Amino acid sequence: MILVTGGAGFIGANFVLDWLAHGDEPVLNLDKLTYAGNLHNLDSLKDDARHVFVQGDIGDRALLDRLLAEHQPRAIVNFAAESHVDRSIHGPEDFIQTNVVGTFRLLEAARHYWNALPAAKKEAFRFLHVSTDEVYGTLAPFDPAFTEDNKVEPNSPYSASKAASDHLVRAWHHTYGLPVLTTNCSNNYGSLHFPEKLIPLMIVNALAGKSLPVYGDGMQVRDWLYVRDHCSAIRRVLEAGVVGQTYNVGGWNEKPNIEIVHTICTLLDELRPRADGKKYAEQITHVKDRPGHDRRYAIDARKIERELGWRPAETFESGIRKTVQWYLDNPDWVANVQSGAYREWVARQYEGEKEGAQA
Ligand code: NAD
Ligand code: DAU
After folding, report:
1. Which residues form ligand 2's pocket by a CB distance below 6 Å?
2. Which residues line ligand 1 (CB under 6 A)?
3. What's the rounded Cα separation, in Å, for the pair 197 and 267?
4. What is the pLDDT of residues 256-272, one digit of tens each?
5. pLDDT tens profile 87-106
6. pTM of the entire predicted model
7. pLDDT (tens digit per residue) in 175-190
8. Does residue 353 carry a catalytic annotation?
9. Residue 342: pLDDT band by 50, 70, 90 thresholds?
């Protein structure tokens, strides 16, 4: 079996579902179930013996040692992290604990487990660390996209904590020989995306008749990848990636935020027109910018394409349509994640924002 950490979150849950749709190798899923973890994401696996869920922290070394000894995974795929940049600005502590200390503890547990494996299993073992393009910092409008050789220049507490974890993973390979792989992916979108992030927040706010808060001028650029394409990239890297290597994963799909928001509004106008006949775009407001906001990310994904033959299957047009439709079809999921804690976060993050200039 494989051990997946953070498998109840957005990408982790999509990965577990995707993994079990593509084969029968069981998954041991270790997730702390923070505000971002949601077991309902895995409801379809309730009676599936191939999925074993354990609630726990990647920072809990005793638990890790016990799980590794008991389940003997052939690989670890590490998704577990605090993942929201705005939250890292309000409170970086959890990001250091999980993303840095947690990754360190997981690496140490993996190293001791791996060291004691018999030769053939030792040779085959992999530790795949899921990371982000944000570790590379920000790009000017005409800079070339990030390659794996880019300098690491993180700008937010979140990206600094992810960069630190990437460095630890690299060092555990260089020093101890742990067979690691690292992926640095661009912005994901798709089903099960927690509605604190741009795309799901805009969809749920639009449907609730609330304002659509675009930070600053909305001209920050992100490179969007459909989540199931990220999952297929991770499967491919786990299968054929060269130990010690880093692979950038992206969708060749750079778009300014304001364009994303307009696309969502247009899709909703078509799929669920407003009762008053007005356009959803009338709900767009410009709000104060994120401190230290990175202006542009772009991924050069030629290495994974060339060496591992991976390419995204989804275009942005097909992926965003599926995504909007998923949120329309799953109001219960949205209601379920909008707990008291979620409402407190939204009130705090957007407090004092007046209805700004209507776009
Ligand atoms: P998410 O916030 O939706 O999910 C994170 C999951 O990790 C949750 O289920 C949470 O309960 C769990 N978790 C948090 N702390 C934990 C701990 N200490 N021990 C065990 N579990 C813990 O995040 P996501 O968007 O699914 O991102 C998953 C990974 O992919 C992260 O490492 C993130 O940095 C990386 N990534 C995300 C994106 C993106 O666009 N979302 C892009 C590139 C890379
Ligand atoms: O690039 C990969 C990263 O993408 C991942 O590593 C992170 O885990 C993931 O959260 C994401 O980070 P971003 O900061 O790019 O995603 P977010 O959805 O928070 O914001 C996307 C863009 O939209 C960013 O420029 C900020 C802007 N934004 C976001 C929110 C929540 C708004 O304009 N308004 C908003 O309300």
Report:
1. 83-85, 132-134, 186-187, 197-198, 201, 213-215, 220, 222, 257, 290, 297
2. 5-6, 8-12, 30-34, 36-37, 57-59, 79-83, 98, 102, 130, 132, 162, 185, 187-188, 194
3. 18
4. 999 999 999 999 999 99
5. 999 999 999 999 999 999 99
6. 0.97
7. 999 999 999 999 999 9
8. no
9. confident
CA separation for the pair 98, 127 (Å, rounded): 17
Q: Are 19 and 231 in contact (CB under 8 A)?
A: yes
Q: What domains, with CATH codes, occur in the chain?
A: 2-190+225-252+293-315 (3.40.50.720)
- What confidence tier does 346 reach under pLDDT thresholds 50, 70, 90? confident
Q: Which of 158, 189, 280, 327 is catalytic?
A: 158
In angstroms, rounded to a whole number, what is the distance separating the alpha carbons of residues 146 and 138? 9
pLDDT surpasses 70 at 354: no
Residues 206, 111: Cα–Cα separation, whole Å: 47
Closest C-alpha among 108, 65, 124, 139 to residue 297: 139
- Alpha carbon 106 to its chain centroid, in Å, reads 19
Q: What is the pLDDT of residues 18-65, one digit of tens each?
A: 999 999 999 999 999 999 999 999 999 999 999 999 999 999 999 999
* Count of Cβ atoms closer than 10 Å to residue 209 Cβ: 11
- Determine the Cα–Cα distance for residues 283 and 355; give it in Å rounded to an integer: 9
The total number of residues written for the chain in this structure: 359
- Nearest atom in ligand 2 to the alpha carbon of residue 218 is 33
The b/e string for 303-318 (b: 16+ C-beta within 10 A; e otherwise) is bbbeebebebebebee
> Is residue 129 within 8 Å of residue 102, measured between CB atoms?
no
d(CA 262, CA 218) in angstroms, rounded, equals: 11
Provide the phi-psi class of 190: left if phi over 0, else alpha when psi is between -120 and 50, else beta.
left
pLDDT per position as a tens digit, 270-289: 999 999 999 999 999 999 99
pLDDT of amino acid 353? 65
With tokens 């502590």, the residue in question is 93
Task: Quote helix, strand, coil % in the chain, to nearest 5.
Answer: 50, 15, 35
